[in-house]
Write a structure and sequence with these properties.
The protein is 34% helix and 20% strand. With 268 residues, the protein is of the alpha/beta class. It has a single domain, classed as Aldolase class I (TIM Barrel, Alpha-Beta Barrel).
Length: 268
């Protein structure tokens, strides 16, 4: 297994890393509320924690959906969270020219699922020297992800992680191939499971993505039983009022339930 450093942590050595935060960096106060709460729980439960928030949601169902408040605004918030709480942070990039700027703040770069095969984006991410977490496209089989790993290795990536976030199954539906986690791990890289996006129903609400929030705990239990190196969650104090992914963000007030699941079902 090609483990790698993520801030003060080591990913891929048998210890679970939690990557969690709001879908969108809606405000400084929101990000700090989520980060401080989750970091406190992570310390209590002995789990490595990385804060996540996006500065731009470039892939939206409708052109009228909120995208975000720009890279400069989002990175300022992420940097402040990182500095004040002394925790690693991550966000996603959508264009090759964003990689170098985002790498000055982020500790690991996230590649969105729909962009997972974009060679220029992967190369730009690898050249920053940061580890790269690639979300496997909803349109890809687990064995297709081997080519993503090969590309990143050829670009000299300093750490690679593959992230499962569901596979398209007909219209407006995703399913998770849990044995596929083992297939992706066979390529010698750590594996992350994105539980909240796996619960989505893309376009399921017409002009917005829907989802089944109640399915998240069961999928987490299944992924932990198979064995994962990182768990990805989007968490919001009031998910129904969130500016993006309202149907599947997990309520911050119920975050302890997730930590209890990790403690009970993790076999690491």
């Amino acid at each position: 297994m090609d483990n790698f450093a993520l801030g003060p942590y080591q990913v891929g050595t048998g210890r679970l890393t939690l990557i969690a935060g709001p879908c969108l960096a809606e405000s400084r106060d929101l990000c700090f509320e989520v980060a401080e709460s989750l970091y406190s729980l992570a310390q209590e439960y002995g789990i490595d924690y990385v804060f996540k928030a996006s500065f731009d949601k470039a892939n939206r169902t409708s052109g009228g959906s909120t995208r975000g408040f720009g890279m400069d605004h989002g990175l300022r918030i992420l940097q402040e969270v990182k500095d004040k709480l002394n925790i690693p942070v991550t966000t996603d990039i959508h264009l090759p020219e964003q990689a170098a700027s985002v790498a000055q703040t982020a500790d690991i770069l996230q590649i969105p699922a729909f962009l997972c095969r974009q060679s220029d984006l992967l190369e730009a991410a690898a050249q920053t020297g940061l580890p790269v977490n690639v979300k496997k496209g909803q349109f890809l089989a687990p064995w297709d992800a081997e080519h993503i790993v090969q590309k990143l290795r050829s670009f000299g990536a300093n750490g690679i992680m593959l992230c499962e976030r569901g596979t398209s199954f007909g219209y407006n539906t995703l399913i998770v191939d849990f044995p596929g986690l083992e297939t992706m791990r066979s390529y010698g890289v750590p594996i992350c499971f994105d539980a909240t996006h796996s619960a989505q129903r893309p376009g399921g609400e017409g002009a917005a993505t829907g989802g089944v929030r109640g399915s998240i705990p069961a999928m987490i239990r299944a992924a932990l039983a198979v064995g994962i190196d990182a768990l990805f969650l989007e968490i919001h104090p009031d998910p129904d009022q969130a500016l993006s992914d309202a149907a599947t963000q997990w309520p911050l007030g119920r975050a302890r339930e997730i930590f209890e699941l990790i403690r009970r079902y993790s076999f690491a």
